[in-house]
Amino acid sequence: MAALWAGKLTASLSRGLRRGGGTTLPGDVSRWVDPKILTTLSRSLDQGAVVVTGTNGKTTTAALLRHILEAQGRRTVANQAGANLIYGVTAAMVNRATWSGRLNANVGLFEIDEASLPRLVQEIAPGTIIVTNLFRDQLDRYGELETTAAHIRRALVKGPEGVTAVLNADDPMVAALGDGLPRVVYAGLDDPTLLQPELSHGADAKFCPRCGSPFVFDGVYFGHVGHYHCPRGDFARPSPDVRATSVAIEGMERMRLRISDGAQEADVVIPLSGLYNAYNVVLAIAAARALGVPVARSAAALRDFTPAFGRMERTMIDGRPAVLLLAKNPTGFNEVLRTAIQFGKGSSFLIALNDRIADGRDVSWIWDVNFEQLKDAAVHIVVSGDRAHDLRVRLKYAEIPADRIEVVSDWRSALKRASASTADGQTIFILPTYTAMLELRAVLTRDGALQPYWQGRAVDAKP
Ligand SMILES: [Zn+2]
Predict the structure, then answer these.
(1) 438-460 per-position pLDDT tens digit
(2) d(C-alpha 21, C-alpha 356), whole Å
(3) N or C: which end of the chain has fewer CB within 10 A?
(4) What is residue 263's three-state secondary structure?
(5) For residue 133, how far is its CA from the centre of ligand 1 (angstroms)?
(6) Strand 265-270 versus strand 254-260 pairing type
(7) Cα of 135 to ligand 1 centre, how many Å?
């Protein structure tokens, strides 16, 4: 109780001082008073906890699953995007508990970075663990992908009895994590019309985990995610239990997926775009199914889903429509760029690169991003953030004419310039790294275009 009260007082003070939503500090304080507080609180979740991990898509997958579960009348407690270290999870539980220690929720839904997963699993014993994908990300923080996979594998193997792993069948490294586990649900895409013939630049994990032979890819959806098999025949893409048999992307506005689990088929219409989001949808539906929600009910629930903050969040900037697309690593960047250009017909961009700890201090990863995609598409690009000049150099090597690139350091001016340079009927595509996104959102929030991130949703701002 002392730990809980200390945490809740910290949260109140933090909000009172307008220090943001108090997303992790109450967790730090509570854990300092009682290191077992998270375990104690999580015992009162009568339907257990779900943990989402992986490089990209954690926030959206967790938000989709939360939306599905709440539509079934289940009360969820979830950590906020970005607060996905163990302190953020603790803070979420402390904030949700009453002063008398009652947790007014049935099910916990937590996104966690790969390195913190083993510890979280030990503390809360989740019933379900979702792994979205594994890409190179912030090497200065987590080291190589193999190390990351080993962290997750350890958590899955040592996890509580009865844990269900919900895995992306189309990412070879993630699929391999399910090897020999008693309860695995695979999710994937089975729309051959969207498969591309070759691996894109900077793709990871192209080797068989059993024998080390290079995989043969029958096709990829993006990066190293697709349909693959080992030429020696000892490992192949698992057949998905829950699959999207067709994915139709309609601009930036929405996409339609036909989802099947063999027994049931249902159509999902959702205000998201991009193939990477198709994965988030099938993974969320697969996890919901593992929690007893039939596919058709999940599909129906997703009709009124609203994107999580900074993930395809829409707003208006000086009368121009804008979309925020968080882009924090090469694969994520490639996919949001591709989505903006291919499906959003994007020509006006604001790209913001920061190099704080949460972004990764080393920004050399921008050389793995396929900015060459912008060469024919971009009419105007505002670059901003701590490392705007690095970004400008990168764009120069992508052969984007210098007169289409503008460096603007101040956030508000950058937004204004991007808006002023956008033609009528066009959308501004804002692609920030993590802390750049928080800072840009803070400006947009002060201007009334968005709600503070701890309140969750974007305001439906009309001009
Ligand atoms: Zn092999």
Answers:
(1) 999 999 988 887 766 545 443 33
(2) 20
(3) C
(4) coil
(5) 20
(6) antiparallel
(7) 20
Residue 77 is predicted with a pLDDT of 94
Residue-level pLDDT at 171: 94
Q: How far is the CA of 116 from the centre of ligand 1 (A)?
A: 30
- The tens digit of pLDDT for each residue in 144-203 reads 788 888 889 988 988 777 899 999 999 999 999 998 899 999 999 999 999 988 655 445
**What's the maximum distance between 2 C-alpha atoms anywhere in the chain?**
62
Q: Give the residue from 11, 49, 13 showing the smallest Cα distance to 28.
A: 11
Query: Which structural domain, as residue segments, surrounds residue 90?
Result: 2-304
Q: Are 131 and 165 in contact (CB under 8 A)?
A: yes
How many domains in the chain? 2
**Do 72 and 293 meet the contact criterion of CB atoms below 8 Å apart?**
yes
Residues 295 and 372 in one domain: no
Domain CATH for 379:
3.90.190.20
Which range, 136-150, 300-314, 408-422, is most confident?
Answer: 408-422
In a shared domain, residues 61 and 109: yes
Find the 237 Cα to ligand 1 centroid distance in Å: 11
Whether residue 338 sits in one domain with residue 388:
yes
How many Å lie between the centroid of ligand 1 and the Cα of residue 375? 39
Could you tell me if residue 463 is inside a domain? no
Q: Tens digits of per-residue pLDDT, 343-393?
A: 999 999 999 999 998 888 889 999 989 999 999 999 999 999 999 999 999
C-alpha 234 to ligand 1 mean position (Å): 5
The answer to whether position 460 is within a domain reads no
Find the 208 Cα to ligand 1 centroid distance in Å: 5
**263 is a domain residue:** yes
Look at 368 and 399; give whichever has higher pLDDT: 399
Residue 325 lies in a domain: yes
Ligand 1 centroid, distance to 232 Cα (angstroms):
5
Q: What is the pTM of this model?
A: 0.88
| Co-location of 273 and 356 in the same domain | no
User: 215 C-alpha to center of ligand 1: Å?
Assistant: 8
Q: Is residue 44 located within the same domain as residue 94?
A: yes
Closest among 135, 326, 155 to 220, alpha carbons compared? 135
With beta carbons less than 8 A apart as the criterion, state whether 349 and 423 touch. Answer: no
pLDDT value of residue 458:
38
Measured in angstroms, how far is the CA atom of residue 223 from the centroid of ligand 1? 20
Residue 96 is inside which H or E element, if any? helix 86-96
pLDDT of res. 20: 53
Pick the closest to residue 422 from 441, 406, 438, 401 (CA basis).
406
